[in-house]
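pasting for the record
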Amino acid sequence: MRDEVMEQAAERAPSVERWRAWATLILLGLLYFMSFVDRFILALLVEPLRADLDISNVQLGLLFGTAFAIFYGVLGLPLARLADRYDRRKLIFAGVILWSLATIGSGFAASYAMLILFRIGLAIGEAALSPSAYSMIGDLFPRHLRNRAASFYSACGMLGSGGAYILGAALIAYLDVRLVDGMLWGHQIWQLVFFAVGIPALLIGIIFFLVAREPARTEGDGDKVPSIGEVFALIRGRFSIYGFMIIGAGMCQIPGYALVAWLPTYLGTRYGYTIEQAGYLLGPVKLLTGFLGSLCVPLAAEFLARRGVRAAIALCGGFAALTAAVSISAASFMPTAVPFVLFTAFGLFLLTGTTAAVLASFQLLVPGRMRATMSALCLMSITLLGLGIGPTTLGAMTGSSLAETYPGIGIAAVALVGALPGAILLLLAARSSRRDFPLAAAAT
């Protein structure tokens, strides 16, 4: 009854407050977009970093994946607990300041160790964003709009992963013709790219801080914040649903993050593309597949749920991940670039949609003051499993002697080791939820 009253009050809110909710969502989406650009721009800087700092493939994989994943994943939980208790707007702003300065600082790195330290700063700053953002979205919008609002936010991040390719390629092409003896304004090209992508997030963060307001908590048991033990008790009580969905979402992103990290380099070594060509090809593909996947799979689950299909979210996610594993594995056998990109793009479309559906579902299925924590646990799984394992594993396999005989073996391996078990876990979660309760019923 209390939730219904709060929902009705939200729907009767003045138009200026409705405008502020949508403006806040758009700004959160822009920040999420820039967080992915700052995170993934490294994929286009592999060759210059390898040349200037003498970094190996394994070190690059650790830099791109493991070093970021450990701190992003582990610190996401305590930061989410702060988001469930305190002002989420201030927490997001502090995170933006930290990750923007870390990105800019990466341009001043003179060694691999310094790059690692700045990468850790980037991870800590970005870890504050999504748990707080998902929690705010749950309080900014009435129940019937939350799934769509959360899916829009997720889609903006996927746009950022593709935007990193396009922006990076454009910056490299623009700067490359202006270099004199490999330098411009006393800096290498990779340093200038870090400077250029670090500044916009800082400016958007300032606008967000000025426009957004901390929304009232619209659900839950008043001001009481559930303990972390209560959150884990909720998961333990239905581990075959919540636990399988959290772990399954993480497993599904092992090939996703591996491909984002190494696709530009792979197109160059196997198919002869330059970094700029790879960026301009992969950028629009990743933009389209990421954005549409983040919207289409959750909306498909919502469509099925409204027509009485129980466990629609986990069911859609499971079948999407299963199909993605097959598609990406098939891509690894393609002898030319066009079918390789098409099969890979279809797989990434499905994998991003799977993750977005699981994250959006938590805005519907858990109490208001547990949303940030549950989102952080899911993001921790995605980061530690997907980003922590995927890029490093594919980087090691790409540099192995086996890859010389079977060039696509690493891509097939991460697809089968990651997305296939993830799909199985999500399908098992669907079966359990059909037995216990209709997991997607809240989407109706």
